[in-house]
Amino acid sequence: xKNLSFIGCGHLAKCLIQGLxxxxxxxxxxxxxxxxxxxxxxxxxxxxxxxxxxCQQSDIIFLCVKPQDMPTLCNxxxxxxxxxxxxVSVAAGIKLEKLKELLPGxxxxxxxxxxxxxxxxxxTAIFSQKINEDIVSLFNFLGKAFLVDNEDQIDLHTVLIxxxxxxxxxxxxxxxxxxxxxxxxxxxxxxxxxxxxxxxISAIKNGENLDTLVDSVASKGGTTEAGLKFLxxxxxxxxxxxxxxxxVERAKKLSMD
Length: 257
Prior knowledge:
By secondary structure, the chain is of the alpha/beta class. It has helices at 11-20, 35-43, 51-57, 70-77, 96-102, 133-141, 152-178, 186-204, 210-217, 223-233, 236-256; strands at residues 2-7, 26-31, 47-48, 60-63, 86-89, 107-112, 122-127, 143-147. The protein folds into two domains: 2-149, NAD(P)-binding Rossmann-like Domain (Rossmann fold, 3-Layer(aba) Sandwich), CATH 3.40.50.720; 159-256, ProC C-terminal domain-like fold (Orthogonal Bundle).
């Protein structure tokens, strides 16, 4: 049985907890300043602990607070940490060296993951100077984990994989809005969205070339070709890439704050 404590139980932490809860080998507890998060922990059968008890009772501590709150948290936390305590940070932009400065004596692993962990479909990048195979295994249980040997890669992963779902959700929101003229029922629209996405996954899952798939749908002189031409004239792909670049810029700025 591994004891896991989550300090900060916001949206991403909840996703991690829900995914990990599917493994009965994990005993999960948490700490948060917000009453709503504490109530969520309790209602889902997880123990609420103090910062001190998180450190004393846990094999692995997950730091899931906002980047700007990390220095204050670490200042409160370091007095309770055991020597060699395993700590996982999911905070965007805060470099490993900074975390080691904030929590001397801890074994720190920096990860960037996403909300897919809730359904054990997450993608997680892991960076540490001392890799803990238990942590790698844990994130593989939550989906797919891979190691990076250059911490700058974490910033790109933060946006592509961490922020990426929001980009697609926003696009799907527009997709569903466009169905208003033919379908009023919200549940039916969502069912169609799910079938639509499932068909796309089915088409790519065997490694098919994406350009070939585009050509298979876009017959010459047809409606698809007309839409694609417009998207390309508006540099749709470049806009997406620039959005990713903006996110990476923000991640780098966070690391310097």
